[in-house]
Amino acid sequence: MLAGITAVAQEAAETEVAGAGILEFWRALRADYLAMGLLLVAVVLLVTILVLLNVVSALAKQATDQRVAELRAQGVEVNEEEVAPKSFWSRFMRSMTDATPVEQEGEVMTDHAYDGIKELDNNLPPWWLYGFYISIAWGVVFWGYYTFFGGPDQETKYEREMAQAQAEIEAYKATAKDLIDEETVTLLTDASELEKGKEIFNTNCVACHGPDGGGTVGPNLTDDYFLHGGGIKNTFATIKNGVSGTAMIAWKSNLKPGEIQEVASYVLSLQGTTPANPKAAEGELWEGGEE
Known about the structure:
The protein is mainly alpha-helical. Helices cover 57% and strands 5% of the residues. The chain is built from eleven helices and four strands, in the order H-H-H-H-H-E-E-H-H-H-H-E-H-H-E. The chain has a two-stranded antiparallel sheet. A two-stranded antiparallel sheet has the order 3-4. A hairpin with a 2-residue loop joins strand 1 (109-114) and strand 2 (117-120). It is elongated, with a radius of gyration of 39 Å.
């Protein structure tokens, strides 16, 4: 269990900013199924231990009752609490509460009384007293760390977390296909990606541009002339937003940005090919390169 938690804590430390605290640790823990499994096993073990302790306590109570019955049968007057074995838990709880037995409360009774209710002068429970001392010590350490040893204040933590979040957003945008736009799109050259673009083209574009890109209603896509600018950025924008007043619709409602990038790259890969019945060149000669 400790090994699993340590691994999660180390993983969380690599991805979170300093001082993110318990919330970030819990998020990392939820994302680690192994650690969650170990936590579940620990809970099951804890429940099992509690059940076993209850069984042991019942057996001890049964043995005590039997012992008391035997002694009383012999005419010996006994106190059940004196005969009962003192378990570790009972001794521990007595040491942590320091409670005065009911029969001895007269020794700690004060003169204070109100409406028939009398006040006892019990000691503070050790569990509370120890916790109070620990909180004081922790407060001194906390204050010293952030005052004299360069511990980051809230403003510094905020700035670090915002910088980390911005870096993560930029990293995500760089790899998320569906966040591509006209400014960030790049020309794809991988054969598998161009094949995907070809499938999209055959499904949506052949009616106007022909199966080989030679053009029918729409222009010829195999020459170096463009009506709305060449290169991947202009081609992406034309497919995405369409052209008002023409048969070229805006495909952004039908295709994802990644799919538009794929089909735009495929369209540009048709340049220089020889269609069966190409239309005459339209628009202006594009000399701006692939971009």
